[in-house]
Design brief:
The protein is α+β, with helices and mostly antiparallel strands. A 6-stranded mixed β-sheet has the order 2-5-4-3-1-6. It is built from 5 helices and 6 strands, in the order βαβαβββααβα. It binds a DNA duplex through loops.
DNA sequence: GCCAACGTTGGC
DNA sequence: GCCAACGTTGGC
């Protein structure tokens, strides 16, 4: 079981909007970066990710679940290699975990979110996942 | 194949 | 609004 972090600017697509999609979820399209694409391709149905609001908020607001393995991104031009997955909202953080919180936690100093701040789909390790869940008030 | 120029992302 | 990081493009 791998864990992920999905960045979204809430002005473009927020956690609340994802929640409104319900169990059907939402296609996660528009990734145009090869590192992020490789991560999308590794995602398997049933795996989980943190939903992070970039720019506005800068905090992890909830947990989402991958509900469909990667498939060709319908918003890509023909012949382009980009892929998408579908995700749905699983549960909100009881307390959002901010970027400042993450930076202030020594155990999270190696998290890819901090190491590669521009990567829109970084991976999260098992131990990082547990720490952030705890910080967010979840078991 | 190198590297300068440029564009984009995202934190501050 | 600025700037650092970094990916991409294009000239050589």
């Amino acid at each position: 079981m791998a864990y992920w972090l999905l960045k979204s600017e809430p002005d473009a697509f927020s956690w609340d909007e994802l929640k409104k999609r319900g169990a059907k979820g939402e296609p996660w399209t528009g990734i145009r970066n090869h590192t992020a694409k490789l991560n999308l391709m590794k995602m398997k149905k049933g795996e989980r990710g943190f939903f992070y609001h970039s720019n506005v908020g800068k905090e992890i607001v909830g947990i989402c679940e991958i509900v469909r393995d990667s498939y060709p991104d319908p918003t890509a031009k023909t012949g382009e290699p980009w892929v998408a997955v579908d995700i749905k909202a699983l549960e909100p953080m009881l307390k959002p975990v901010t970027l400042a919180d993450i930076k202030a936690e020594p155990k999270l100093s190696a998290i890819q979110l901090l190491k590669q701040s521009r990567l829109s789909v970084p991976q999260v390790t098992d131990s990082e996942w547990k720490i952030v869940c705890k910080m967010g008030g979840l078991k």
